[in-house]
Specification:
The complex is a heterodimer. Chain A is an all-alpha fold. Chain A contains 12 helices and no strands. Chain B is of the alpha+beta class. The chains are: A mainly alpha, B alpha+beta.
Chain lengths: ~325, ~550
């Protein structure tokens, strides 16, 4: 019988199992803390669900709606109720639409996933290439140009850049649609996605470029590279095979950091470009004090970040045997 | 090299797969506007922006402005605003009040069908009012407008009676304002607000357009109702695109992706006027801006103080700068679009710093210690001015602050998020001075915002209580003869201009941005033009 498991011994599996259990409980505690903070901050903030906050509603109308939405209970009781039902897998119904919270999230999540995943892939591929070019041409014009671009990307506010892009590409040149997700054709979709992806990438791409650059510079001076060169390997092989392979390992680790940043950036990008994702959903939910929806999206995003970081940790430890995730 | 190829292929494939994931999702959206294409009269499609996801039920507590503009063409009411804004027939063909004014009889149109083929009858009207509006536990949106309605009685399939607690001449006008009739066969039984299938997915109305597809966060596509009772609409399709950002809305109008909407940001007007494909239409609207001085605070109970404030603020200058001239200085709650009732022959308060100072001093406020701030009994006149983050409000408040400082009133601005403002100023009535606006059905009945019984928790925000004003406004409600009514409201306007329950600022005009090829749109405010969407067409 062949073993397909990559773990060499039963002992390692046990350690892995313990690690998983520990990580799982740590995550639960983290989610609990996040949910408590979010719930109380939101409920203690002034205001209430939009349906109660109409300028012309009378006190009786507000009272009737508060009763319907179950908001007459003390905050602590409402948190307990929310927690118990969430533990049972039910995130409740949205106060603003009456739909189940999970249904509203799943309506929007595919769009955010699509936007952030494509941005991440493009950021990694383009970022690594630019990072290598930058490192290999240290202090030459290529390096300076890439550095300049990174600084601009990181420092210009994305909402401003987004509006400038709309004015240029949608209004002046009329090449790209200024909002929406396009219809079903792939070309149309790509056109709708171009601007949101580029703007979102400005917050992640520079980080990857800089990280790759410094990582490459570090690796390139190490002994095994000198050995490879002295063995007469071609420069391209040295750079792209020996050096990059090793330089990429730490780059993997920052992907874990970039995922929350992408999800945060999606809030602005989705609002400006009318992209129907979760970022816009949480903005609307917070403004309208849709307590259940804000809680649902927060927990969902927290789980997403925990899981993706976990995956990154595992991959990292597999790539670099010196690093142990567990 | 082989690896590099593999990686490249993997990269391309993953991008394509991800792009395809989403395209399956958006297939049903399908509501992309073709912009200004279209034939002479029949056919074509238009797109209108809305800021957020709508709720397809006029009375739902979550149906806000973005829902109203959609519901207005899916559903219809008993009456609608005429092209002169007075109530005109819609589902009701004619109506009359009883001698004592306590009962209104509405004759309903025959042969009207709901979008699902069911007949529209008097039972639907009774259901809408008795089971939705008057059920206090539901907290229906707009129910407070129908405070004096007791019940709706079905006389026969095509006749209903509205039984009132007291005479109410404005009823037909209120029925034209966000008071669409809902189908009993779809909504009865169970909590009407929990009916997600109807309220969020597949509404059934009697209006000129019916639901095609709705994708949350993207668009609502409606197709024409060929059996619409006023005749088949010209445009085949109307798409409401959800575009939350007002800058993006304007950019989309310039690139011909949107056809008609109200421009919130008046400063974009120059950019638009240079475009040949667009036109800007300024329309009067039943809305006025005001400042409320809390009457619980005894510094504001003296009319001289309120008059001084009005003289101190250069309202014309604010209209000229912030509103770019699209507005008119206000001197009461009855707006100029109500030509039969509006009068400007009332006490006026032109910008006059000296006059303001004199009135303050008559009220006992003088700068006795020479610090630039007027005082009374050793107390300086210091006010906290609450202002919500919304459109131009902050900018306006800063100007008002400067004007008041000039006459010796120390004003501190307190900027609040909208929702927090409602909590503090409206629910708790915890404020000294605030600025906001009222929009109301095009009828001079403004009792809701002025009646003494509506102080404290109702819409009488300043809490101004005055028996004489109550009497005048109630007389206006009870009188159905147009000339007599006009006389009563003329007197009420004179009285309110003297006493200033609110500090009146201006009547803004609404700026509509329209595709120049879109024809047949009445030149009234946007909300009322939608009642005539079946007459709109694209001409090229």
């Amino acid at each position: 019988m062949k073993h397909s498991l990559s773990f060499s011994t039963i002992g390692e599996m046990t350690i892995m199992g313990q690690f998983l259990v520990k990580r799982f409980f740590q995550s639960l505690v983290l989610i609990l803390i996040v949910s408590i903070i979010t719930f109380f901050i939101m409920n203690l903030a002034p205001g209430g669900p939009s349906s109660m906050m109409r300028m012309d509603a009378t006190a009786e109308e507000r009272a009737a709606i508060a009763e319907q939405l179950g908001l007459n209970e003390p905050v602590i009781v409402r948190y307990k109720d929310w927690l118990l039902s969430a533990l049972g897998g039910d995130l409740g119904t949205s106060l603003s639409s009456g739909q189940p919270v999970i249904e509203r999230i799943m309506e929007r999540f595919p769009y955010t996933f699509q936007l952030t995943a494509i941005t991440l892939i493009i950021s990694v591929v383009v970022g690594v290439i630019l990072g290598v070019i930058s490192a290999m041409n240290r202090n030459k014009w290529q390096d300076n140009l890439i550095n300049f671009g990174s600084v601009v990307g990181l420092s210009v506010p994305s909402f401003w850049m987004a509006i400038m892009f709309i004015l240029l590409f949608s209004v002046e040149l009329q090449w790209l649609p200024s909002s929406g997700v396009g219809d079903s054709s792939l070309v149309d979709k790509a056109k709708s996605m171009a601007m949101p992806v580029i703007i979102l990438a400005t917050s992640t791409l520079p980080t990857i470029v800089r990280f790759t650059r410094s990582s490459m510079l570090e690796v390139i001076n190490q002994n095994f590279i000198r050995t490879a060169r002295s063995k007469g390997a071609r420069e391209k092989t040295v750079v792209y095979f020996h050096a990059l392979k090793n330089a990429l390992i730490p780059v993997v680790s920052i992907i874990g950091v970039l995922i929350p940043r992408l999800l945060g950036g999606a809030v602005i990008v989705e609002t400006v470009f009318g992209w129907p994702g979760m970022g816009r959903l949480i903005v609307e939910a917070s403004q309208g004090r849709d307590y259940n929806l804000v809680m649902g999206v927060t927990v969902f995003v927290t789980v997403l970040v925990i899981v993706s970081n976990f995956i990154v940790d595992i991959i990292y430890s597999k790539l670099d045997p010196r690093v142990k995730a567990y | 090299m082989k690896k590099l190829w593999q990686i490249s292929i993997l990269f391309i494939v993953s991008v394509l797969v991800l792009a395809a994931c989403g395209s399956a999702q958006s297939d049903e959206g399908g509501g992309e506007s073709g912009g200004a294409e279209g034939e002479a009269v029949k056919g074509g499609e238009i797109a209108i922006p809305i800021a957020a996801d709508p709720t397809f039920n006029t009375w739902h507590p979550n149906a806000y402005a973005e829902s109203n503009v959609v519901n207005r063409i899916i559903f219809t009411g008993l009456t609608k605003p005429g092209k002169d804004l007075s109530p005109s027939p819609a589902l009701a063909e004619e109506w009359s009040a009883s001698e004592d004014g306590n009962v209104w009889t509405f004759k309903l149109r025959q042969g009207v069908k709901w979008h699902d083929g069911e007949d529209f009858t008097a039972d639907d009207v009774a259901f809408t009012f008795n089971d939705l509006v008057l059920d206090e536990s539901l907290g229906s949106n707009g129910a407070s407008n129908y405070k004096s309605l007791e019940e709706v009685v079905v006389v026969d399939d095509h006749t209903v009676e509205f039984h009132l607690e007291r005479p109410w001449a404005a009823l037909p006008a209120y029925l034209a304002f966000n008071s669409e009739i809902m189908p009993e066969h779809q909504l009865s039984g169970g909590d009407p607000w929990d009916n997600v299938e109807f309220n969020k997915k597949n509404p059934v109305g009697t209006g000129p357009y019916k639901m095609d597809t709705y994708t949350s966060g993207q668009s609502v596509s409606l197709v024409k109702n060929e059996d619409f009772y006023e005749g088949e609409p010209n445009l085949d399709k109307v798409t409401y695109k959800i575009v939350p950002d007002s800058n993006t809305q304007i950019a989309q109008a310039i690139s011909n992706e949107l056809d008609i909407f109200v421009m919130e940001d008046k400063s974009a007007i120059e950019r638009i006027e240079s475009s040949n494909d667009l036109e800007v239409v300024a329309a009067d609207i039943t809305r006025y801006f005001w400042i409320a001085l809390n009457q619980e605070d005894e510094r504001f109970t003296d009319a001289k103080v309120r008059q001084a404030f009005t003289h101190a603020i250069d309202r014309q200058a604010i209209v000229d700068s912030v509103l770019q001239g699209y507005g008119k200085v206000a001197h009461g709650p009855i707006t100029p679009d109500q030509q039969a009732f509006y009068t400007d022959e009332v006490q006026q308060y032109p910008y006059d710093v000296e006059m303001a100072k004199q009135l303050l001093s008559e009220a006992g406020w003088e700068d006795s210690d020479g610090d630039g701030v007027v005082d009374k009994d050793g107390e300086p006149f210091k006010i906290v001015f609450d202002i919500a983050i919304q459109g131009d409000l902050e900018r306006i408040a800063q100007l008002v602050q400067q004007y008041l400082i000039e006459v010796g009133i120390d004003v501190e601005l307190n900027v609040l998020e909208w929702n927090a403002m409602i909590q503090k100023n409206i629910i708790e009535r915890d404020y000294e001075m605030m600025l906001n606006w009222w929009s109301y059905p095009t009828d001079p009945d403004v009792y809701a915002q002025y009646g003494s019984e509506n102080a404290g928790t109702g819409n009488n925000i300043p809490g101004y209580q005055d028996a004489k004003l109550d009497e005048l406004l109630q007389q206006g409600q009870a009188t159905s003869d147009p000339e007599e009514r006009a006389e009563v409201y003329r007197e009420a306007q004179e009285y309110m201009a003297e006493t200033l329950p609110y500090i009146y600022l201006w009547y803004p005009q609404e700026l509509q941005l329209r595709n120049a090829n879109l024809k047949g749109v009445p030149d009234t405010y946007f909300g009322s033009t939608l009642h005539y969407i079946y007459e709109w067409y694209l001409d090229e």
